Each structure stands twice: as structure tokens, then as C-alpha cells.
Amino acid sequence: MTPDSVLEDGSLETTQSETRPPLMNAKPDMSDHLIVTIDGPAGTGKTTVAHQLAARLQLDSLDTGAMYRCITLLAIEEGLAPSDPGPILEALTQHVIDFDWEPTPPQITLDGRRVDPRLREADVNDLVSRIASLPAVRDRMVQAQREIAGRHPRIVTEGRDQGSVVFPDADVRFYLDAAASVRAHRRATELQSSGKTVDEETILSSIENRDRLDRERTDSPLRVPQGAIRIDTGSLSVEQVVDALEHAVREHLKSAASGGGV
Ligand code: DC
């Protein structure tokens, strides 16, 4: 396990950086540093796409939603109000949120415990947008995400603000989108295939509610980053989306290697 303490005292522990083979068609300097961001609303498959893209291009991958979910779980476990940032920030100095970079994809841990899939349960789902709207919490996360990229400079990072706020100079920025009804249907199918009884209308209203909170919050609302490649995933399979992203990244690398502006 390669420990990456992302939040303790707002600082980060040192960690070994990983050695990766260079990308095809990439100049050596480009292979040392490649930041790809994927933003978009809930249910566009960003996390799956980011992990698959990272595997194809031999990059690390960062699920920043898991960081907000982990803080939410911490607040739930500690009985903290989601509206009051003070005690939440205080709790972050007493508990350790880490990533274990050994497995693929990397696993988030809270005080050494692997907490995914607990992070996907209803109580966390219901509260996470409120916690993610707290500016003080976001500041801490943005700092932690930049520090992670400093130590993992070949990375695909996905969330709501990665290309717009955290890494506005990322090498390649993507924005994935799909109609809310499509996203709700996908989520319902996913839950049904894991044996759960679902009501698609309830899922749709929860997705619409999260969209509204993510788009309307004052700090870092969800928006299309400048220069982002926008992809409507509505009629595409995961593989087709990953193909499109991989193609765009490789084109970027070719263009950079031939000295073209990117
Ligand atoms: O992608 P997700 O559903 O796991 O994200 C969980 C919540 O965190 C969601 O309300 C959006 C928020 N989030 C955010 O505000 N900024 C990010 N970079 C990532 C997620």
C-alpha cells in the first residue's frame, strides 16, 4: 500500500511516485506529466470512464466525488451537521482520509478502513451535495487534489470542477453529459442487475435534485470548463465513450509531440 494522506491537518504525507512506461507517440517530457480532467453531472459514467481511460493510457485515476462522499460519511459517523463547516474541518484533522494506490482503481480509506461501497449508500447520497457545497470543505479538497496531482502527475481526475477550477490548465479537459432521464434509467438498470428493487421516478428526482444543487451552488458550480471536449453519452456505450476520450488524448499527444499548439 502506498499511503497518501490527503487530509490530515490539511497537509499531505510524502509518498512514492509511481513509475510508468511512457505513452505511445508521446515526447518524454509529455509522458512525465499528463493531466486529463473529466467533469459532468451525476450518472454520466465519469468514474467508470475515468478508470478505464486511465487503464488504457497507463495513468493514475482520481475519483474526487469519493473524497466528498468520504467526508460526508465521516460527518454522519461523528453526528456532525452538514451545514456547519467548522466541526467538519476539525474532524478532518482528527481522522485520516487516504487513497491506497496499489489496487486498480485506487481505493479510498477512512482511518485505514476501505469505505467504498459504503460511500454509495442512501444516507451518504442524500447528504453529499450539501457537504460539497461548503466553500471551506471545497477549499480543502481543491488543495488536496492539486497535491495529489503533484505526486501523481500522470492522472485522469474526474468530478464536477476538475477542469473548471482545480486544473484549468489540464492537458485535456472533457465534459460528459446526458439527459437526466437517460442517467436515471442507467442507474435503475445498474441497481436492478445487482438484485435491488428500484423506482426509476425516485431515482430521476434524486438525480435532478443533485443536478440542481451542483449547478446552483455559489462555490464552483458545475459548468463546462473552458476548452473542454463535450460528449453527450446518451446514445453511447461506456466503451464508445472511452474510445472517444482515448482518441482525443492520443491526438493531443501527437500534436504536442510534433510541436503543434494544443
Ligand atoms: O461524482 P459523485 O456522485 O460521486 O459526487 C458526489 C458529490 O460530490 C456530488 O454531489 C457532487 C460532489 N462533487 C463535487 O462537488 N465536486 C467534485 N469535484 C466531485 C464531486
What would you say this structure looks like, in words?
The chain is α/β, with parallel strands linked by helices and 262 residues long. The protein has a single domain, classed as P-loop containing nucleotide triphosphate hydrolases (Rossmann fold). Helices cover 48% and strands 14% of the residues. The chain contains ten helices and eight strands. The protein has helices at residues 28-32, 46-57, 64-78, 85-94, 122-132, 135-151, 162-166, 180-193, 200-216, 238-257, and strands at 34-39, 60-63, 97-100, 107-110, 113-114, 154-159, 172-177, 229-232. The strands form two sheets. A five-stranded parallel beta sheet has the order 2-6-1-7-8. The chain has a three-stranded antiparallel beta sheet with strand order 3-4-5. A hairpin with a 6-residue loop joins strand 3 (97-100) and strand 4. Helix 3 packs across helix 5 (122-132). It is globular and about 55 Å long. It binds 2'-deoxycytidine-5'-monophosphate. Residues 42, 64-65, 68-69, 128-129, 132, 159-162, 210, 214 line the site of 2'-deoxycytidine-5'-monophosphate.
Question: What would you say about this model in short?
Answer:
The chain has helices spanning 28-32, 46-57, 64-78, 85-94, 122-132, 135-151, 162-166, 180-193, 200-216, 238-257, and strands at 34-39, 60-63, 97-100, 107-110, 113-114, 154-159, 172-177, 229-232. It has 262 residues and is an alpha/beta fold. The chain has a single domain, classed as P-loop containing nucleotide triphosphate hydrolases (Rossmann fold), CATH 3.40.50.
